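Encode chain A's predicted structure.
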Amino acid sequence: MTASGKAREYSERFYDFKKKYGSYPLVEGSYVSPDVWDMWQSKAFELMRADLESGWEVDPSAWGAYCIKYEKKRINLLSRSGGAWIIYIIFSVATYGLGLFIIPFFMYRDFIELKGIDVRLMRKRS
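Encoded structure for chain A:
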């Protein structure tokens, strides 16, 4: 029971970022930092808009960066950027071909692929 005398009902929901954005967003890093949470919190509210407008509220005790579900990815920059290919070719020529063997080991960066957000919603039971 709440202070107003009415019980609350809860619902666990998963909101998929792919449904909204067409693909899973990539963010550089290896975990959900406070900056990532600050940036994606408003986008999470966009996904929840229909439920929030129908009377649900976010349970503040179950809300935070840990709600974002993600997968760690290690991505080779050569597969993502034309500029990286130019640097790769120039460095390879400058090192007489040695760069062909060395650079691929240093061209990886860690990213997280944001899958969605797990949220516990609540509302007053009628």
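The first strand starts at residue 8 and ends at 16.
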